[in-house]
Specification:
Rossmann fold; rod-shaped; binds S-adenosylmethionine; 9 strands; seven-stranded mixed sheet; about 375 residues; alpha/beta; Class I SAM-dependent methyltransferase; two-stranded antiparallel ribbon; 9 helices
């Protein structure tokens, strides 16, 4: 018995969606598997002692291959490999960051300290309200950062919530070896942040500036960077919106000096290497976002599967009903046929004709 085709339309289309979902789940699993190998470092590269500089190691170390533990949305993702290298290279006594938001760059610094066992203190400064360039956001952002900080880094890390300048008195002059400036990105903003915080730097002080390659309306870090880069030893990365590295102190850490020296000859190679490593980190972030979607997709797949099963059951039920009706219909047809062929039916035919005639006349 043919079943009305409309009954099949729903389950067939859902079947296509379900297959697509299953394919995605398989692809995510494969990507997650691949991701679990990324923290492996190439063999044979060991750490350098402070002051020992081998030219071939002047801009790459094991840390350049690390993948951050806390992957969150950030325009800074592609700078993690260089940041790992930098903290390893200069081994700062204290780090301050102006502009932390979700904590991506800040937790890269913190992670390096833990993994290398450094005695570094760190300070994250932010209003944790956002601004017109980064966008304004809710209290949950600070709460997430604070939870990670308490759980993983509370031994050495302090979050200073408020405007940058309000914390100037909390940090002693000459105490910071690494300052990251990533607040508002207008020329006046970045210039103000640099000038206000410069006294906090030690004589080994290094400053990194994010967004030096960003030229969109309202961004002026590039302009301030052009002024600074001719006054101090420096190196500029173009990828990831640009990152400027500036040695402001009179005593440039030896491995950083070697890096700057290598940068004179090998700038393209260095940029290309850290661009590649940065892209690998950004890819890890995308994979982690997709992997986080897997449980929801799996739930959707099993909901679709049971919907499909129910639809199948309903189709079977309808088929049974239709078969029953058909057999009832055929039974009635048989009864009618046998009635038509019966002797009594034939004998009573004149009576039926007469009755029809009477009815027609009355009408
Ligand atoms: C671009 S985000 C920082 C991004 C972060 N470094 C990362 O790794 O993704 C800029 C942050 O600076 C903060 N900010 C900007 N100006 C500030 C100021 N004067 N005082 C405190 N926070 C400020 C904003 O709240 C925002 O969270």
């Amino acid at each position: 018995m043919p079943v009305p085709s409309a009954l099949y339309v729903f389950p067939r289309s859902k079947r296509g969606e379900m297959v697509a979902c299953l394919r995605e789940v398989v692809a995510f699993r494969a990507a997650a598997q691949e991701a679990s190998h990324v923290n492996e470092v190439p063999p044979g590269s060991d750490f350098l002692d402070e002051g020992t500089v081998r030219p071939s190691d002047s801009w790459i170390s094991d840390t350049s291959y690390w993948v951050p533990r806390h992957l969150v949305e950030s325009a800074w993702l592609e700078h993690a490999p260089f940041a790992f290298w930098l903290v390893d290279a200069i081994r700062p006594a204290a780090i301050a960051e102006l502009g932390t938001h979700n904590g991506f760059s800040y937790f890269v610094f913190c992670e390096t300290i833990v993994r290398l066992g450094l005695p570094t203190r760190t300070f994250a400064l932010d209003s944790w309200q956002g601004d017109d360039q980064a966008g304004f956001y809710g209290a949950d952002v600070y709460e997430n950062v604070s939870t990670i900080n308490k759980t993983d880094y509370s031994a050495f890390s302090t979050l200073l919530r408020g405007y940058f300048d309000d914390s100037l008195d909390s940090i002693p002059d000459g105490s910071i070896d690494l300052l990251h400036i990533d607040g508002r990105h207008g020329y006046d903003d970045v210039r103000h942040d640099f000038e206000a915080w410069r006294p906090k730097l030690s004589d080994r002080g290094v400053v990194i500036f994010h967004d030096i390659a960003e030229h969109q309306e309202g961004f002026g870090v590039w302009q301030f960077w052009e002024e600074l880069a001719v006054q101090f030893p420096s190196f500029a990365f173009d990828h990831g919106h640009g990152l400027g590295v500036l040695a402001v102190g009179s005593r440039v850490p030896p491995r950083l000096r070697a890096f700057f020296d290598a940068g004179v000859e090998n700038a393209d190679q260095i940029k290309e290497f850290y661009l590649g490593r940065g892209r690998a980190v950004a890819k890890e972030y995308r994979v982690s976002v997709q992997a986080a979607e897997v449980p929801a997709l799996q739930a959707e797949v099993s909901a679709l599967r049971s919907e499909l099963q129910n639809a199948g059951l309903r189709v079977e039920e309808k088929e049974r009903e239709i078969a029953l009706h058909e057999s009832e219909r055929l039974g009635l047809v048989d009864q009618v046929n046998s009635l038509h062929h019966s002797t009594s039916w034939r004998l009573t035919r004149p009576l039926r004709l007469a009755s029809d005639l009477v009815h027609r006349r009355r009408d």
